[in-house]
Every structure is written in C-alpha cells, then in structure tokens.
Amino acid sequence: MFTGIIAAVGRITRVVPESADPNAGVRLTIDAGSLPLGGVAIGDSIAIAGACMTAVVIDGSTLEFDVSRESLDHTTGLDAEGDVNLEKALRFGDRLDGHLVSGHVDGTGIVVRFAVTGESWTLIVRAPLTLARFIALKGSIAIDGVSLTINAVDDHESGCDFSINLIPHTVAVTTLRHLQLGDRVNLEIDTIARYVERMLGSGTVVQSPQEIIAAA
Q1: Among 2, 20, 206, 210, whose Cα sits 20 to 30 Å from the Cα of 168?
Q2: Does one domain contain both 132 and 80?
Q3: Does residue 14 lie within any of the structural domains?
C-alpha cells in the first residue's frame, strides 16, 4: 500500500524489451534521484507513476524493474524514458498524509485542461465510462500516483470530466508540472469506492456479526 504522497521524482533512463515477442514486457532502469533507498531491498515494492512494481536490481541510486505487457497495456508513461513519480511502500506506523493507494492502476484519463487559476492550478481530466461511476465530489483519486481531492465532476455519455485544484507545492515536486493538453495519466480510484461497487453490484446482502452468529 501507498499514500499518494510522492517522495521523489526519478527518471526512466532505459527501456529494454524482455524478448522479441511483441507480447513481452520490458525491463526498466530508473534513476531514483533523491528517493531515500535506505532499507530498500530486492523484492520491495515501489510505486512508479502510481503503478506498484517490484525492484529486481538495486545499484546505488539506480533501480531496475520488470514490467509485464499486462501492466504496459493498462498504464501510461512506463514504456519510454522520462520523469516519473516515486513512492516507497507504506509501513505500519507511518503517517497516512494522503489516502490509501494500492498502486493498482485502474485505467488512464486524458488531460483536457491544465491552467493557472489564481495562485493555484486547475487540472481537468477526462475519465472513461468504466471509471466515471467511482469518481465523486470531494472523493479521493490518485493521478500518476499523486493523492488528490476531486473538486467537481461533470458527467457525460462517454464518462466524466473531473476537476482538481493543485497547489504550487504539488506542481513543483511531482511530474504533474509537465502535463499538457491531450496527455494521458494513470488513474486509481478510491479503494472504498471499489468495494462498495462490488458489494452493491453483486446484490449480496451484507450481514451484521449478530446476524451471522444467530444463523449459525
């Protein structure tokens, strides 16, 4: 699990296909930048642009990851050189300054507005219909791994456009500062919304502990 509070901006410096098979994944080499790697070991999880990946090589401040074709097909920004948001996995006892983020990207959205508004920035992202029902006013969402609060939602036939207010600090310390119109971003919906949808969609009535005991 993660918090959506970005610890550092690293950079993908190399992308190498695992094989000639077009369905193969890639090996990513990342310069972790200022990410503190003390205590990080091979096999540990790191969120890269919001996607949870396993470190397979650690060499100083350089990390390597194997990224499957499945992950590449459902994310953006993991198949080319460039800056990426980085966060180490949450430990029990750590402060939860953002919201609970699993690092399991649900899909991608498209930037339809990114502009200065007063002292802050307004970011509007178009989400697909498959994710729109999970996006709510004042709810939480992770964009490229950044924990953010939704300020407005505009539903339409193909999904929804949701608005985020970004303070200057968030823009300065994450890759969101590079966004341009038409860019794709990784989206992870709030974990609570995911389970509520599953329970309501299944038609299953959730019993209380007392009801379960009485039926035993």
Answers
A1: 2
A2: no
A3: yes
